[in-house]
Amino acid sequence: MTDRRTPVPALVRPPRLTPGARVAVVAPSGPVAEDRLQAGLDLLRGWDLDPVAAPHVLDRDPVLGHLAGTDADRAADLQAAWCDPAVDAVICARGGYGAQRVVDLLDWTAMRAAGPKVFLGFSDSTTLHEAFAVRLGLVTLYGPVAAGIDFVKNARAQDHLRATLFTPETVRTLTSTGTALAPGRARGVTLGGCLTLLATGLGTPHSRPGARGGLLMLEDVGERPYRIDRTLTHLLRAGWLDGVAGIALGSWAQCGPYEELRPVLADRLGGLGVPVVEELGFGHCDGALTVPFGIGAALDAGAGTLTLDAPALA
Prior knowledge:
By secondary structure, the chain is of the alpha/beta class. It is 30% helix and 21% strand. The protein contains ten helices and 14 strands.
């Protein structure tokens, strides 16, 4: 594992998808609504993919109802899907909570031997994005999930994800709808996800020791401004943000009025002396864009752009 002084490395890009590719849908976190799942599977079929739902994707833990089945079953579904040579991509059905209870149950040696393939998820799957980077050295996609309302209802989210999966060279630049929270330009390798999950993964064996040299993508949902303050302060005090090259902010849904949250973000991140772009359009928002983690990129706060050095998938 790299130490905090080592810059975030570029990772291996999995192959892009082609018509007929088999896609496994798994539920490593919260319970999945059957109607949403079916709608998502139908949409994937409409893209000429072959989606297969994992055996326990519609389960609910009999005691802990906030989990999509037992920890063992959720882990087994994810590992079986990843290690199946017929599967080209693994997509999370939804977020919620539970991936932290699964990550330590996976056989990372077996998953590494299975070779590179696409992993897609967001929110709670931030834990898995970190683990896939640390344990497998793979680029992953942070974007709409198969049973998510944004995926099944929003054309912008669908179109951007589809292009990322099939023709990633056409979506190499993401453009902000906001302004620069801090000016400047920077280069680095993309990483990040849900702020709360990054912070609660600190110090665990499947998480990075720091964001040095990286372009950090941050978003969250359902956290009051003071909680965002507390979490960012924790990362600052732990040294996790030391040497970060630049920061791109996504959505902050249900985190209070943005005019109350923005000063918190400026206060906690502005002192780092790096460019900070806001409202880049990823995360828990309508029409969420798909962001690859593990790709070299350029961040231009003045232009409000994140431009990838290479397509997300090979």
